[in-house]
Design a protein that fits this description.
Layout lengths: L10 E5 L4 H12 L3 E6 L3 H12 L3 E6 L8 H12 L4 E4 L14 H29 L3 E6 L12 H21 L4 E8 L2 E2 L10 H8 L7 E2 L4 H8 L10 E4 L7
Helix pairs in contact: 1-7, 4-5
Amino acid sequence: MSDPFDVSKEVILITGASQGLGRQFARVLSAHGAAVLLAARQTGKLKSLADEITAKGGRAAAVQMDVADTGSLAKALDAAEAAFGPVTVLINNAGIAIEKLATEQTEADWDAVIGANLKGAYFLATELARRMIARKQGGNIVNIASVLGTGVLKAVSPYAISKAGMIQGTRAMALELAGNGIRVNALAPGYIDTEMNHDFWATPAGEKLTRRIPQRRVGAESDLDGAILLLASSASRYMTGSVVTVDGGFLLG
């Protein structure tokens, strides 16, 4: 019986792959056989990750891509597809957050967050969708949203708005692209311990936030492994427009 979580025939483009969740997604998907295209603005960390994956017998290539520069996306996709052939799965993961109260957020802050998290993700997905439609081979788009796309906390309003847009964009694209054999789903992580926020969880504010999570712990990067494998593989073949939440019960509070 074939493994429904097999991704060995997939060419998977992962944005924001230089660190955090993107890096973990790349490791997991490559370990399960996928050829992974590692995309980010800075390629230094990408090359070391590609070397790590290749040393373990995997297939990986680094691609310079700034999702906020929508005019460059087609060229970046050309470079990506030159490495392993047509992209069959997109993990739309790149994004940023600027922590300020709404009354302190500037227009530049708004443009940076919305540009990377929503506008860039949307136009990368649609550029790839056009290629998938032209090939008539279907495809799979996985948008990385957030629990803050439905819930909300203080000081990250542009981020929360961008992730709410990502969730609705997932549904809109899923509806439009289903007839072309293209699935579009979203993964909405809760609070995950990464190298960028690791020290925060030991602070009083971090401990207070952790107590709001019904499981009483912050997620590990590996807690998303099963969900990303589900969404990236044919195990989710009858899913489109879905949002898979992995948050330790945070949204129940």
